[in-house]
Design brief:
By secondary structure, the protein is of the alpha+beta class. Helix content is 41%, strand content 22%. Helix 3 packs across helix 5, helix 7 runs antiparallel to helix 8 and helix 8 runs antiparallel to helix 9. Bound molecules: alpha-D-galactopyranose. Alpha-D-galactopyranose binds next to helix 5.
């Protein structure tokens, strides 16, 4: 079985596609997908996250039009779509991630004209690597430059997140879009989702590699479960806030408050909230581990995160649990957990470099036997955030 590494994306192919469709030369922008080392389902609870942008990205080739039309081409879906600026709306399609950000610009009063756009990339779609945020941020960065809008990075992040809420219907947190725009090669970003303060944490992993194992269970974030988790957390906050001043999010809540006010009302809401509080603590000590270069300790925390996501937050699935249990017995794997929203997608694994091929081969054979699914494996590296390709 082949482990996919980092072959660079072929920009000339994208430019050629644009020229074929629109008979002019485009400018090209990219925005990467993300991994998250630790800190899952904490972002929309004003907690901490530790994502990194990766060397897999969405790429857009773009050019202005004289009229008010938007002409879109998706290479991956082999589809085209045309709409007037005044008529854009969600349609439960890949176009939502492009049109959603155009809609945000119009809502905020920015003047944009028509444009031609070809979308492609080397980020795997639907594998929990935030291909949607990558598309939103690449399109927004491109429109920002094309129409001279002067948006700051954080404005791009906020609008991309809003587009996901309104056009894709997922009430996501800020992590994916933030990582896609602010990522830095060889670093993770430790982000406080309450204050948006962030700093870059060097990813010195003692020779360990970050290996993603794609369960091939297509995760459907838009499935109501993600939004339900968010509501459950908000419910927990509301029950505590009824007894204490100054409670705005789970960030303000302690375990003893949960025991006192939430547990008697609803055990499931209690479990969800408790997981979030514990995950925030885990992230903070994982950052210490990274600083001390104690990668084994970091790996142990990743296993604990998985346990919490699986049994308390209940966003894992049988296949993800299988993958984590499988690698737990392998001495060359120091840590593993499901990553992202859940219900499918990838696990992230810290693996010794020279063990990767052997591990993937063994896991693939047994995974196929256990689930009937064909595993995919990618080694990823931390990369820079959104940029224009000159
Ligand atoms: C998805 C969302 C993020 C975050 C993660 C879970 O990726 O888009 O905002 O909530 O799930 O940590």
């Amino acid at each position: 079985m082949k482990v996919t590494g980092s072959q660079p994306y072929d920009i000339s192919f994208l430019k050629q596609k644009f020229i074929e469709h629109f008979h002019s030369a485009p400018v090209v922008f990219r925005s990467p997908g993300r991994i998250n080392i630790i800190g899952e389902h904490t972002d929309y609870n004003e907690g901490f996250v530790l994502p990194a942008a990766i060397d897999k990205a969405a790429y857009v080739a773009i050019g202005k039009r004289e009229d008010e039309e938007i002409h879109l081409v998706s290479v991956a879906f082999n589809e085209t779509y045309t709409v007037n600026l005044s008529a854009i709306r969600p349609r439960k399609s890949w176009t939502d991630y492009v049109l959603g950000v155009a809609d945000q610009l119009l809502q905020h009063g920015y003047r944009i004209g028509g444009f031609n756009l070809v979308l492609d990339g080397d980020i795997i779609i639907g594998a929990g690597l935030s291909s949607s945020a990558a598309v939103e941020c690449s399109v927004l960065s491109a429109l920002n430059s094309l129409f001279g809008l002067g948006l700051s990075k954080i404005e791009i992040v906020n609008m991309a997140q809003k587009a996901e809420h309104l056009f894709a219907g997922v009430k996501c947190g800020i992590m994916d879009q933030f990582a896609s725009v602010f990522g830095q090669a060889e670093h993770a970003v430790r982000l406080d989702c309450r204050t948006l303060e962030y700093h870059y944490v060097p990813l010195h992993l003692n020779g360990m590699k970050m290996l993603l194992l794609n369960s091939k269970v297509s995760h459907s974030l838009a499935s109501s479960e993600y939004n339900t988790r968010r509501q459950q957390c908000e419910q927990g906050v509301a029950w505590v806030a009824a007894h204490h001043d100054g409670i705005h999010s789970l960030r303000d809540v302690s375990i003893s408050m949960l025991q006192q006010y939430v547990l008697p009302k609803d055990e499931i809401v209690y479990k969800r909230c408790k997981y979030v509080l514990e995950e925030n603590q885990r992230l903070l000590s994982a950052c210490d581990d990274l600083e001390r270069n104690d990668i084994r300790a970091l790996g142990q925390k990743m296993f604990l995160t998985h346990e919490g996501l699986s049994t308390e937050y209940e966003v894992s699935c049988a296949e993800l649990d299988w993958l984590v249990e499988f690698v737990r017995k392998e001495e060359d794997v120091w840590g593993a957990r499901m990553m992202g929203g859940g219900f499918g997608g990838c696990t992230i694994n810290l693996v010794e470099e020279n063990a990767i091929d052997r591990l993937v081969e063994k896991a693939s054979a047994q995974y196929l036997r256990a689930t009937g699914l064909t595993l995919e494996a990618y080694v990823v590296q931390a990369a820079d955030g959104s940029s224009e390709i000159i």
